């Protein structure tokens, strides 16, 4: 009697949805470079025939029209993903990531930057979401309990080994290994420190800024952030208002969103210095290593932070080797997914520079909290001078929304990357045919 071996479960579809929120109506998210943004998500879903009901969900964050291009870029990856064995992908996410990043024709569009690299990140993150769900763990814990050698295998060391070798990465991870379980317990008990940008959008009135700043302190935040860069007189007044509202013990960071040339950044920050800004974020072009170094040298003791628009690990390597930044800001949806962010976290640990992730947007808080918590558990082993950005909007659209209590992100408990959106939200905010958008025509 012959028996047939069952076929392995395979990825059967990569679905892409264009989801947009009309945040420009209340000027939520407004800054000097993005005065009226509609926060948007090019949303990716990996479906399988495994029969377990599990799917991989993730997204690339954009603002409005950029979603047209970003969704198309994700859809272009479908032929390279559909048909792959689920077990093979989830068992070696490093190989899966490298197969997409190194595709000889698609990489021509970067290489490793821009819409195609962000698309790769969305698909890779969806695969991590699926793998963690299959393991029954949130991604932060899935990573945090992974053996060091397996973590090193996730990293693409091409173009990095002059600054960080696999052996050095392994040493960093081994050094942090003894306290992992204690740090997991502390995370579950207390959470991870957060700061909030909610008071600081550029379109808000001074009265709204002051009220939200006071509310943030009452909610347990010890750091807030203000957008700057449109008008120096306005920024001096707004920073003075914020400082008078929260007192001297609260850190106030400021964020220029790449608005300035190098000398403009230096002059502007010297004018704001009397109000003791903690860091200046994205003072100039994210690609300008020498410019960041010059700003950092000129505005001390104000710190320089950047990272949310940095395209890949190689630029982070240059910033760190050049001593051009005080704060590294990873983003969950800008580089090539979890794997590349592991590389950046290891680089920051090698150069002893704290990581304070960028969040906000759509789903960025949900996803990046996992990376910060993994860093604490298995890489840096500390939360000193480390905070994750938090913005209090759009979380209600997620199955497992980010939760902040007493100024700390609570550790997610549900398996996955926390990126899965509610079906009703996907339907209502679908662009251009969802009811939220058809009602505006």
TrEMBL record:
It comes from the Bacteria. Keywords: Lyase, Magnesium, Metal-binding. Its cofactor is Mg(2+). Its EC number is 4.2.1.68. Pfam families: MR_MLE_C (PF13378), MR_MLE_N (PF02746). Residues 206-302 form the Mandelate racemase/muconate lactonizing enzyme C-terminal domain. PROSITE patterns: MR_MLE_2. InterPro entries: Enolase-like_C_sf, Enolase-like_N, Enolase_C-like, L-fuconate_dehydratase, Mandel_Rmase/mucon_lact_enz_CS, Mandelate_racemase_C, Mandelate_racemase_N_dom, RHMD-like. SMART domains: MR_MLE. It catalyses: L-fuconate = 2-dehydro-3-deoxy-L-fuconate + H2O. It is an enzyme of class 4 (lyase). This is L-fuconate dehydratase. It comes from Streptomyces beihaiensis.
């Amino acid at each position: 009697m012959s028996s047939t071996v069952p076929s392995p479960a395979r990825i059967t579809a990569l679905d892409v949805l264009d989801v947009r929120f009309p945040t420009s109506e209340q000027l939520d998210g407004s800054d000097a470079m993005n005065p009226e943004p509609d926060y948007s998500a090019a949303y990716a879903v990996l479906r399988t025939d495994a029969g377990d009901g599990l799917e991989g969900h993730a997204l690339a964050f954009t603002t409005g029209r950029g979603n047209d291009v970003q969704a198309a870029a994700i859809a272009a990856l479908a032929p390279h993903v559909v048909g792959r064995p689920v077990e093979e992908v989830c068992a070696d996410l490093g190989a899966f990531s490298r197969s997409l990043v190194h595709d000889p024709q698609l990489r021509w569009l970067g290489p490793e930057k821009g819409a195609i690299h962000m698309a790769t990140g969305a698909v890779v993150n969806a695969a991590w979401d699926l793998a963690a769900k299959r393991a029954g763990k949130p991604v932060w814990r899935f990573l945090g309990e992974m053996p060091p050698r397996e973590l090193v295998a996730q990293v693409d060391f091409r173009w990095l080994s002059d600054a960080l070798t696999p052996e050095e990465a392994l040493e960093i991870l081994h050094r942090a290994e003894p306290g992992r379980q204690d740090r997991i317990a502390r995370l579950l008990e207390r959470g991870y420190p957060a700061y909030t940008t909610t008071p600081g959008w550029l379109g808000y009135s001074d009265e709204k800024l002051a009220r939200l700043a006071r509310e943030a302190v009452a909610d347990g935040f010890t750091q807030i952030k203000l957008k700057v860069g449109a008008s120096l007189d306005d920024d001096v007044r707004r920073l003075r208002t914020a400082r008078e509202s929260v007192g001297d013990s609260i850190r106030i960071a400021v964020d220029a969103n790449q608005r300035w040339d190098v000398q403009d950044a230096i002059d502007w920050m010297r004018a704001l210095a009397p109000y003791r800004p903690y860091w200046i974020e994205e003072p100039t072009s994210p690609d300008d290593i020498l410019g960041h170094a010059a700003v950092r040298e000129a505005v001390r003791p104000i710190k320089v932070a950047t990272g949310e628009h940095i395209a890949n690990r190689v630029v982070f390597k240059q910033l760190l080797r050049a001593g051009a930044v005080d704060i590294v800001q990873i983003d969950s949806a800008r580089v090539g997914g979890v794997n590349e962010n592991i590389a950046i976290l290891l680089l920051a640990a090698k150069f002893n520079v704290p990581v304070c992730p960028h969040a906000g947007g759509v789903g960025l808080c949900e996803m990046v909290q996992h990376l910060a918590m993994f860093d604490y558990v298995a890489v840096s082993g500390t939360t000193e001078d480390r905070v994750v950005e938090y913005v209090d909007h759009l979380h209600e659209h997620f199955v497992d929304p980010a939760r902040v209590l007493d100024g700390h992100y609570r550790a997610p408990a549900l398996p996955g990357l926390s990126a899965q959106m509610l079906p009703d939200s996907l339907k209502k905010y679908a662009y251009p045919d969802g009811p939220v958008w058809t009602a505006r025509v």
